[in-house]
Design a protein that fits this description.
α2 crosses α3 and α3 packs across α4. It contains 11 helices and 14 strands. The chain is 37% helix and 19% strand. By secondary structure, the chain is an alpha/beta fold. α6 links the parallel β4 and β5. The longest helix is centred in the N-terminal third of the chain and has 20 residues.
Length: 297
C-alpha cells in the first residue's frame, strides 16, 4: 500500500534520484542483513584486520553498500544523467550509446531503462571484472558469435569493426529492440533465434553445428548465457580443435565452478587464457567470483 502511494505521489525522476542516493542501500540491507552487517564490521575495523582482497572489497561495501561491482570506479556512475528518447515510429525508447541508437523493449519504463543502461556501462567499463574486452580493436575483421546478445550493447560497439555479427538471442523480450538497433547494419548482422547448447534440436544448436559449413577462421566467441556456458562449450568440441586462431571472452561467474571448469577446458585444448582482474560479488551466495576468461593475446 505504501509502495503504491509512493509511486503515485512521487515523480519517476525523484524516485530515480532517491533510489540512487540511498534507497538501493536500504533495500540491499533488508535482503541481505548478514552480509551487510559483515561488510559494515570490516569497514569499521579494517585497520585491525588482514589486508586480504576479500576484506578490501567488504570494506568498500561497508561504506557504499552491497554491490555486484565493489570498486571505486562504479561510484563515477552514481546519479549520472541518462537521456531516454522515444521513437514514435518504433514505439520504443532508445539511448544514444557512443553515437548509435540502442533500443530497449517497449514494456520497459524509462527509469528501468536508465537503471539497466547504467548497469551495462558499469559492466563494460575497462576496469570492470565483467568487461568483455578492454581493446575492441582486436576484433577488426573478425566474425563474431555474440552468444547471449540481450540488448546488444557489446555488438553495437563493435559492429563497424567486424566482418560479420551473429547475435544469438531467443528471448522475445529483446528481439524487436535488437532488430531496431541493428537495422542500419542488416548486411552484416544476423539474429539467430536459438539457444546455444550441447544438443541440436528445434530450439537448440551447438556451435559445431552452426559453424559446420562456415569459415572457421578469424572467429571470436562472446558468451554470456546465465550459467549455460559450460554446456555451450561442450557443443564446440570440433571448433576448439579446428579453429586455433579462435579468440574469446566467456563469462565465468554464473556457476560456482565455472572459472575452474572453463579454464581447464581451454587449457586442455591448448589455448592460453587469462581472467579479468578483480571479482564480482554475489550477496546471495556470500562469495566473490571471477568475471570473465579471455584468450591471452
Amino acid at each position: 500500500m505504501i509502495a503504491k502511494l509512493y509511486r503515485k505521489c512521487v515523480s519517476p525522476e525523484i524516485r530515480y534520484t532517491v533510489y540512487d542516493a540511498f534507497l538501493s542501500r536500504v533495500l540491499s540491507f533488508g535482503r541481505h542483513p548478514g552480509e551487510s552487517l559483515k561488510s559494515l564490521f570490516i569497514y569499521i575495523f579494517q585497520c585491525f584486520l588482514p589486508k586480504t582482497p576479500e576484506n578490501t572489497l567488504y570494506a568498500f561495501m561497508g561504506k557504499h553498500g552491497l554491490t555486484f561491482y565493489p570498486y571505486k570506479f562504479m561510484l563515477e556512475y552514481k546519479l549520472s544523467s541518462i537521456d531516454c528518447i522515444y521513437d514514435h515510429q518504433q514505439a520504443m525508447y532508445y539511448i544514444v550509446h557512443k553515437g548509435k541508437k540502442l533500443y530497449f523493449p517497449k514494456r520497459n519504463e524509462v527509469n528501468n531503462i536508465r537503471v539497466l543502461y547504467r548497469s551495462l556501462i558499469i559492466e563494460q567499463d575497462i576496469r570492470s571484472p565483467h568487461c568483455y574486452l578492454n581493446d575492441l580493436s582486436r576484433l577488426a575483421g573478425k566474425t563474431v558469435l555474440d552468444i547471449g546478445a540481450a540488448e546488444g550493447i557489446f555488438a553495437l560497439e563493435v559492429v563497424e569493426l567486424v566482418k560479420h555479427l551473429y547475435l544469438f538471442e531467443c528471448d522475445e523480450h529483446w528481439l524487436k529492440a535488437l532488430n531496431a538497433t541493428f537495422a542500419p547494419w542488416k548486411e552484416k548482422v544476423t539474429i539467430v533465434e536459438k539457444y546455444v547448447s550441447d544438443v541440436d534440436d528445434e530450439l537448440n544448436i551447438t556451435i559445431d553445428r552452426f559453424l559446420e559449413e562456415k569459415d572457421k577462421r578469424n572467429l571470436f566467441l562472446k558468451m554470456d548465457i546465465e550459467g549455460y556456458e559450460q554446456a555451450a562449450l561442450k557443443g564446440a568440441v570440433n571448433t576448439l580443435k579446428e579453429a586455433h586462431d579462435l579468440d574469446y571472452a566467456i563469462c565465468t561467474y554464473h556457476r560456482a565452478d565455472d572459472a575452474e571448469a572453463i579454464g581447464k577446458l581451454f587449457s586442455d585444448n591448448h589455448f592460453e587464457s587469462e581472467f579479468t582482474d578483480g571479482f564480482l560479488y554475489f550477496a546471495e551466495h556470500k562469495s566473490f567470483r571471477k568475471g570473465m576468461i579471455r584468450r591471452k593475446i
